[in-house]
Known about the structure:
Elements: E1 6-10, H1 14-25, E2 29-34, E3 45-48, H2 50-58, H3 62-65, E4 74-79, E5 84-90, H4 92-99, E6 104-107, H5 108-121, E7 125-129, E8 132-139, E9 142-149, E10 152-158, E11 160-163, H6 170-175, E12 182-194, E13 206-212, E14 215-222, E15 227-235, E16 245-247, H7 249-255, H8 262-270, E17 274-281, E18 289-290, E19 293-295, H9 298-301, H10 310-328, H11 336-365, H12 369-382, H13 384-389, H14 392-395
Parallel strand pairs: 1-2, 1-11, 2-7, 4-13, 11-19
Antiparallel strand pairs: 3-6, 4-5, 8-9, 9-10, 12-15, 12-17, 13-14, 14-15, 16-17, 18-19
Helix pairs in contact: 1-5, 1-10, 2-10, 10-11
Flavin-adenine dinucleotide is lined by residues 10-16, 33-36, 43, 46-47, 132-133, 164-166, 170, 188, 231, 277, 279, 297-298, 305, 308-312, 314.
Amino acid sequence: MAATRTIVVAGAGIGGLTAALALAAKGFRVVVMEKAERLEEAGAGLQLSPNASRILVDLGLKPRLAGRAVTPESINIMSARAGGEIARLPLGEAASFRAGAPYWVIHRADLQAALQAAVNEHPDIDLRLGCQFEDVTAHAKGLTVVQRRGNARQQELAVALIGADGIWSSVRHHLFPEVQPQFSGLIAWRGTLDATALPREYTSARVQLWMGSNAHLVAYPISGGRQINVVAVVPGTWNRPGWSAPGEANDIKGAFASRWPATARMLVNAVDEWRRWALFTVPDFGEWSAGSIALLGDAAHAMLPFAAQGAGMAIEDAAVLAKALGDSAGDNTAGIPAALKRYGKSRRARVLQVQRAARQQGRIYHLAGPLALARDLAIKTMGPQRMLARQDWIYDWRV
Length: 399
Ligand SMILES: Cc1cc2nc3c(=O)[nH]c(=O)nc-3n(C[C@H](O)[C@H](O)[C@H](O)COP(=O)(O)OP(=O)(O)OC[C@H]3O[C@@H](n4cnc5c(N)ncnc54)[C@H](O)[C@@H]3O)c2cc1C
């Protein structure tokens, strides 16, 4: 296929792989450059709400995810202060039917493996592992993208470059070097455990969200229900970049040792091996593109995890990007900068709204004292259906 139809995607995370499939479905040849030698587990579980799962279903991924993704029956909101459940938001088949797509909880590695298998089977996608995006220059024929594999450099002629290379994005640095991720003062700890290690009533298909003073805890089944994913978010000063630094189990166990109900402590104590990552965000910086280069996913808008939408927004970005380029580019490369601008413009407002919602949700989860009491009462008064309806603007989104 001619270079006039080649798009380079830097990064083979959830965003980059989804973008590759969506762009190939619009008739582009896609080269995906991924610096890692292997795509392997990083970050454990993900919740994917219908706004994101709908796109994956449309890309034909449902059969590949069968047996791996779990559809939870409910989100159980638990209060550490009250010591138990304060609301149960119904999900399951009824909610999937209503939203026209499932709510899934899934191991990140399972989703990435399904995306990678689909990418590998696609004749127009060339996934290059162990290839780092290094540089790009623009000229009359489009872009020359430089990749590095070990000491060897190789060039690729392309009509567009998409930076899906995560929060520490090199592509973003190339375009907007002044933009720096900001440390939130929060650290996410995560671990998985074998479902058989817990009493059965704690391993059913549901998302447990425990809200406590200055901390929260989330647990849900992944890998077809064989494992339980546990994530605890607490304040801290350790702020090294990365997804998977080992964490000292006693530190996180200590944070939950007092004033947390027995069930929450049991979940934390049951995990043997903890990984931690410092939570950074990318502040809004206006444009997401310059010329024929655009950003996608965490590279453009890494957010706090409280709305469980970071990967969801990357998946939405991929679908909107492919539509914008597919609609306007044809064989004419002159239309690409305008299409990328339209993509960024149409995504930015929604992503800002979701980022704000995530921040606000975080503050609510971590309330202490009388404010936590008021929160618990407000949630009870509102009731599960109204609580769930508050998410409609996120879940009902369509390309
Ligand atoms: C605690 C926590 C819980 C979360 N839970 C959820 C959730 O429930 N639901 C949800 O939707 N989101 C969740 N998220 C957010 C989600 O994990 C991220 O938003 C999402 O993974 C971002 O995907 P991405 O493809 O943009 O970036 P990444 O997944 O970071 O992928 C970037 C890729 O680019 C590669 N790369 C980097 N530099 C280069 C280079 N120079 N050349 C080539 N390749 C390069 C990297 O190796 C990597 O593979 C959570 C995040 C955290 C921290």
